[in-house]
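#struct-pred

JT: dropping the chains for the assembly here, can someone run the whole complex?
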Amino acid sequence: MDEKIKVSGGTGLSSKDISSGKIFMTEDSLDCAYAWDTGVAINRYLSELKKARIIGTKCRKCKRVMLPPRLFCELCFIPSNEWVYLQDSGVVNTFSICYVHWDASRIGEGEKPHLPAVIEIDGASQGMGIMHLLGEVEPKHIKTGMKVQAVWKPESEREGSITDIKYFKPL
Amino acid sequence: MRKVAMVGAGMTRFVRRALETPKELSYEAAKIALDSSGLSLDDLDCVAHGTAPDAFDGIHQNGEYMVDGSGGWNKPTMRVYVGGGTGVHAIVHGWHHVASGLFDTCLVVCEEKMSSAMPHAQGFFLTIFDSITERALEPNLLWIFALEMNRYMERYGYTKEDMALAAVNNKTNGLNHPASQFSDQVTVDDVINSEMLAYPVSRLDVSPVSDGAAAVLLAAEPVARRLTDKPVWIEGVGWSLDTAYWATRDLSYPRYLDQAARMAYEMAGIREPAKQIDIAEPYDPFDYKALHHMEGLQLSPRGRTVELLRDGHFAKDGNLPMCPSGGLLGVGNPISAAGTMKVCELFWQLRGEADQRQVPGNPRLGVAQAWGDLMQVSSVVVAGI
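RK: done, full complex below.
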């Protein structure tokens, strides 16, 4: 074999190769369904969200107030079973303005961009953020370091889910 | 531990959509790596194999399906998967096989075929988000990269133009790679003006989806010396996994990579990586990640990376060429194969066989890195001649 050959194969296809019937394909569609148990710590977290409250856990050794709450401190590897109510406000650590859907298709005309953010919740240890959404704000006005407040769904619509908070709005 | 060398490498072209099956792509890369070393399949002791989660290809137990293509049938064959970090981690995985003394030779083969997943491979990454506290928000994979990129830029006051410079550096290098799926020169303006996907991420800040495979043959010292007069030694390996509570981390600095790099440098006896390393292949699925990773690799001071980039420090003829292969941005991103492609590049560059991509000055020490899982893992290989 020629010693200079370092690249071989990887025959590129165009959509025309497929539409013209030059190459063949088989297709299948898999339908996977799952139901996840929420676990000990997150079950409590969700039950408090249903009451429009955010709760975390505190490690008695490293003193971190952690969000999402957890059964054990992953740093100290001991139980973290002290429950602490936090504020439903926080600070934007970072954000994005997203114009594509999960499948990479573009948002439609008139559809608003999605506004994901990492929000450091007041009362948790510094840097303890959660991923959530921003709302009631023009994208161009979003800044890191901005103070935000949770906007809760009405009690009748809350179901024990992270989406019981509709989004966070500027304070 | 025994000394381990790379004695052969090979890869396929990276393309948007390949005619070949995953098995056929694996065969092409594995065959070149074996042939270039002069070894036959019968001489080969074992195979270390890397590929994406099964859902990607829609083939359950994909590693078993792939075994014939990777040369692994009737041999000790083991698959490894750590997300985007797989391509370099598979080299670490293969290194263990030989360094331990258990095997004299190990063929590392990584393959990815992203075009089969419909409508877009990106959708199959959604299940990495926490199933209870995050997936209910209907996240999009791009979110986490956009959130990290924004945090990195805000921390140091970097602009979109600054990040685009990294894309142009890598994409320009990639034009000379025979496996690249690109043929057009890209400018900073092209990157900045490309479609905004998820601020601050524009389309040309991102590597493409690709199909492809890459392979590296590893051998223990006595075998390596018999096979070639230019073995490329694996001087150090490292890896680390950070917390899955990703929103609680400092996103502006890749701590997991800091740890992985220090582990590899310690093994290699490297005290001043920024001075001692001649070429770097940081993982660059996004332009900001190349820079972020140069900092984590201890090859650039935090917050000064753009300044060094602008000064030409990381150019092909600079003091520390960054992604001379072209990287994922310039060659393509068949995920696990892209990481292995970076190690192939070290092999060719350090042997002086990188043709038009060859960096000047006879580089003697290089580092390759890959990153993945929930933005939390890094694998590092230091290689020298």
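JT: nice. Chain B touches chain A through 68 residues (CB under 8 Å). Residues 22-37 of chain B form the longest helix (16 residues).
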